[in-house]
User: Fold Myrosinase 1-like from Bombyx mandarina.
Amino acid sequence: MKTFLLLGLLGAYCSALSTKQQRRFPDDFLIGTATASYQIEGAWNEDGKGENIWDYITHNNPTVIVDESNGDIAADSYHNVERDVEMMRELGLDVYRFSLSWSRILPSGFANEVNEAGVDYYNRLINEMLKYNITPMISLYHWDLPQKLQELGGFANPLIADWFEDYARVVFSKLGDRVKLWITFNEPREVCYEGYGFTTKAPILNATAVGTYMCARNLLLAHAKAYYLYNNEFKTKQGGQCGITISVNSFKPLTDSEEDRAATELKQQAEWGIYAHPIFSQEGGFPKELVVRVAEKSAEHGYPRTRLPQLSEEERVLIRGTADFFGVNHYTGYLVSATRHTPEYSTVSLLSDINVGTYRPVEWLQSAASWLTLMPNSIYDVLTHLKNKYNDPIFYVTENGWATSPEIGLEDDDRITYYRAALESILDSLDAGVRLKGYMAWSLMDNFEWLAGYTERFGLYEVDFSDPARPRTPRKSAFVYKEILRSRVIDHDYEPDTAVMTIDEGH
Ligand SMILES: C[C@H]1O[C@@H](Oc2ccc([N+](=O)[O-])cc2)[C@H](O)[C@@H](O)[C@H]1O
Assistant:
């Protein structure tokens, strides 16, 4: 009797497993890859392009980059339009997300002078993609602010909202006839906290106590202006959609205690709620607990007013609801504790304001980037959490990926493990009713990984940065990703023949 029961259970388990293996991505679900201008384009001063904040930092302060490298040439995508699109065709991509270099289009940042050669590069890329039915998704801003605008304060200057609107108008007018998926900003947290409150992204202001919050307010207003511009002047004619991409890590309480749960909520508010809540919640505005906490901490440190600038009633209403979709960049997650944290912070910052600890169990697979581990089913956690919190918006996962060291070369088995797990989690999210329309792997090819330079590789294609031609070679993960795109299922037993990469019929 016992044996029968066991066999029955085993049978049910196997059939559940095989059903799971056969789950398909819907035909209209867009699967693709993502890149960003400064990380791949190179041609930093060619054809009229202006200087941006990464050009400035890497040229004037090279030691902040681990290998003292820069994006002057990067993957040289500016000179490789056809090869880049050929790789998209080899993989069979539905969608390719890339960003525009603001200073390639408007060299000074201001819209009085348009650099047509820069616009032409993007025209050539878009037209080549469309020839092969690859949908472009464009981020207007992925961290490379024109240096001239930085010299005027960048995102600390409230006028950034007007400058960004002017830039967006040029872009929508020039490219909007063919591009239907727009993202205003990539990852406000990394722009504002890392760039204005810390030292890990340009412009490295380290204006810890107040910079992050000033930037957050101005960036949200810039986003809202660009959204209304598209809605009011372009949407009817061009028929596209405009959203924003926020980096959302999964945060789970370390224990079931009330304190750890409260710490987790506060950590979420500080990391991504500060950007998501004003746009996606019904009430709008900054998250309430965070507002209270920053006010308390400001008073504690002798500031006569809170360091989180208030949104006026008019601004709260203006920003609320300004996204047709929620772009989620998701890579990893943490366990959060209220008590087990670094006891003293040397400066006042967003981190000391919230004062919580984060942990990762050693069992989680570690990548070549210290911040990136594989937290099981974290995409599902994040998407279902956001769905419930923000009234079921439409989502795209606009980035998700894995770092290997350069020495790994083409045999990137951990990347395959990561992508298979992530894509199972995506299918779980679709099964749970998340209105998720697409998924983009970071990245199509190796590129300049900000302060890590070329020491961390994220590409499905390896780029040889020692060769002036920057040849691209598919990694094993590229073959696996191609098979998932072709079959629309995840076969965990699939072993690719990596001898030759071909372009399949239809691409
Ligand atoms: C590797 C890519 O990283 C993206 O940025 C972040 C930022 C923060 C996290 N995080 O887990 O906290 C993950 C990824 C970035 O958008 C892209 O350009 C790449 O560098």
